[in-house]
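Sorry to interrupt, but I need a hand with the structure work. Could you add the entry underneath, on a fresh line?
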Amino acid sequence: MAKVPYGINGPFIGRVGNTIGYILNGINVIRSIGAFHGEYTPKQLANYQRMGLISSLSTVIQEFLKFGFAAVAAPTKQGHTNHSISINKEKAVKGVYPNQETDFSKLIVAQGTVAIPKNPMVKVLNNKLEYRWEADLQTEGAESSDQVMLLAYFPESQKAIVMASGSRRTMEKEILEIPGSNKDRKVETYMAFVSDDRKNASNSVYLGQLIIPATAETAQKKPAEAVKTKDHRLKLTAETEDAIDLIPKPYKDKDGYSDLYHFGSKYTEQTEKMRIVSPLLSLFKDQINKGFEHGDRRTTPFNKAVSRNINGAIGGGDRVYNIYFPALVFSAGKRETAWATKLTLHSENEVRVKWEVPKTAKMSLIGDDEPHFIFYNRTRDIQCATYQTSKRRDLEASIELSGARKGDIIYAYMFFVAHDKKSVSNTDYLGCIEVE
């Protein structure tokens, strides 16, 4: 159903038959939806994969792109995200379908006529990235009022820290603080300058991939009671008095995988996968209704969740499949995700989750976000958590486990919902605990 908010002679918004109307950057756009019959060609499939890679990345770094492409995207009314996709899907993807991947060294995140940073460099200092450059005010397009823009992208977690307005060009230095973690992380780094009026930028400069080491104090807190089992899962004892700052992480062998599902019937592969994941997701319909409420209105939140998890969390083939629990998702959106999460078994039936907020994020805008938690008792195939209402600004929440018994395996997840309910974050996997 379409709406006509501007009167009968104005633009319509919505769908009428196979025609879609919407407003993009102040311009009314009308397009048709055509039915495709037949098989996609290898060239089409490769293009779709390239678009998917760059689209998901552009969504995460859109705050940087908004100013980085202000001078080139705004005049065409294309939009900064669409501009990023159009240039990077050809320039910044390497490999041959179906094994294409992002080439971060060729990724462009800013374009304009402002002078680029001269002799830029970045290095790791504890849990910080120190960026340096030379002011070089004699170069055409360089102004002392220009501000540095910094981007640190973490490809493994698909998260980013953005500083859209840092030090002036003449300061020749800026620090980007990174939340702690209990493991080493790869980070792709970029720099650009933006003009004082935010309407123009320099071309972006790729500074390379760095490794940010695990936070030292996190490693020192590893409890003596934690022991490795045969399947590499870490046991947490409920009798531990002190908070445990260890988050069990997925391993590449058995840990995190369900038992095998075998189909002897003649269902299609899509149907077989759906029959595996749908009963599990049905346990969390309330959370999924919030986590997938936005986006495509032509399908239900539950169906969107099923589709995402079929493609991302179900492995195998030839009628034999399994679920990779750390890859399950219960939400999808553009809101800031949780950083540096820590899952702690505090008592026999209480779990505590802590998280951080990057200093570049504006707490005034995201502080009232509501965290939503999913605790799945794999052993008993039940949802097993209740929790008090909290906010992102609290940086922690307590969750009471219900029905958990000795030996139960429990997987934990979280996502944030904006205070106005208009946006959500992607799902963060918190870890796996075994009640002992």
Q: What stands out?
A: Residues 55 and 85 are 6 Å apart (CA to CA). Residues 2-32 form one domain. The chain has three domains: 2-32, 42-213, 261-434. The two ends are 54 Å apart (CA to CA).
